[in-house]
Amino acid sequence: MIPEDFLKNIAASHGVSELEWDVLRLSIDGKSIKAIAQELAINEGTVRKRLSDIYKKFHIDGRGPVKLAKLQQLLVNQYQGLSNEQVSSNLITNIDSSVGDKLPLNASQTQDWGEAPEVSVFYGRKAELETTTQWILENHCRLIALLGMGGIGKTNLAVKLAKEIQDKFEFIIWRSLDNQPSPQEFVTDAIAFLSNHQETELPADINEKISLLIKYLRQHRCLLILDAFESVLRSGDRFGRYEKEHEDYGIVLKRLGETEHQSCLLLCSQEKPREISLLENPKGLVKSLKVEGLKVEDAAQILQEQGLTAKEHWKSLIDYAKGNPFALKIVGATIKDLFNGNVAEFTKHNTWVFGDFRTILDEQWNRLSKLEKQMMQCLATETKAVSLSKLKKEIPQISTSELIETLASLKRRALIDTSHQNKDESQTSYYLEYLIKKYVKKYHLSHDE
């Protein structure tokens, strides 16, 4: 007899819902479909449908009573603590060989972390972790985008999140798009991994390949992570469109966001792909989260670890960096080396040291359209937030619609912020944060400071 707690944990790990659990429990107890229907006050067709879904989640094939026998044997073997090889051997001997091929593989075969960085130190992000965990595990979201400027910590957040929930997935695949693999390469690679390299003859058409990928995302609970997604988006384009050779990533996002499956695709990107904007809905299964800077108390840990002094000035430093952890690490190292760790001595000069952080900002700047760069330069010269009507006067050569589209694009890229200066919040104004303004003025205006 298998203890109910053990059975329920195994069922949950395979994505069995509460409604399906009742049917599974009674089936394992030997109840007939008719008896289950009567006990649960549902019709027999519903019982059969739920059993069918349960068999799919446990990767059990066959017909009628044979499938239930296979499932019972699998659960008994797991409870007895047999190894995968023993389970496979028993199933081959007692039932038939087809089940053994579909048993879960070991961790090294079911997790491919690719270029995921090792995150040995992690700061804060409790709210972000709670939100994204809920989206994935409770809401079963199919497509999620972590968005934010470079250095803000999107990748580290994704690693931390994936490590914390990894035991809820049968497969995990991490891929960075820094090297711009084609959509065909990504989908082919994912299918090969999820099929344990059993799928050797793949269709040439991308839609057919995606359909095959979705088949595995339905059969297995998978977490796919694509880091540096902005690498496949077109530079100089205000609308989040793709480089020509990477346009099919849009099809991947659309299909995986719209089609029913039990897995999740998680993106990290400096820019918001159009498909996310079109598909996300407060009550839907496609979500995006703007990753902001660290809270003051969390960012202070970075300065503490660097051995900086004059704590009363730390908040000013953190506010200047808008809590960007990478920017704080760069400037903190400079303060330690050149100012003996004294933050007060550095902040009195009202300047900033970009160091390697400039490389990140340069990459973002180079992705902007000519009009976006012009808008950034205009905002960098302002001392306070600027209304749309004033911007129209500052850049009179462009239409209002172009102006709004440009502001929307910069907002999606996390390069500008908005404020409401009127008490009734009837007028929105636009501005650059301190660090971004310093960067533009220093490197992209003719009258450099």
Characterization of the model:
The chain is α/β, with parallel strands linked by helices and 449 residues long. It has four domains: 4-104, Arc Repressor Mutant, subunit A (Orthogonal Bundle); 108-290, 3-Layer(aba) Sandwich (Rossmann fold), CATH 3.40.50; 296-357, no CATH class; 369-443, Winged helix-like DNA-binding domain superfamily/Winged helix DNA-binding domain (Arc Repressor Mutant, subunit A, Orthogonal Bundle), CATH 1.10.10.10. It is 52% helix and 9% strand. Strands 1-3-4-5-2-6 form a six-stranded parallel β-sheet, with helices on both faces. Strands 7-9-8 form a three-stranded antiparallel β-sheet. The chain is elongated, with a radius of gyration of 27 Å. The termini are far apart. Mean pLDDT is 86; it is low at 82-105.
Structure characteristics:
six-stranded parallel beta sheet; Rossmann fold; 23 helices; Arc Repressor Mutant, subunit A; 4 domains; 449 residues; 9 strands
Enumerate the spans where pLDDT stays under 50 for 5 or more consecutive residues.
82-105
Kindly report how far apart the N and C termini lie: 77 Å
What assembly state would you assign to the polypeptide chains in this entry?
A: single chain
CATH class of the largest domain: Alpha Beta
SSE class: alpha/beta
Number of helices: 23
Strand fraction equals 5-15%
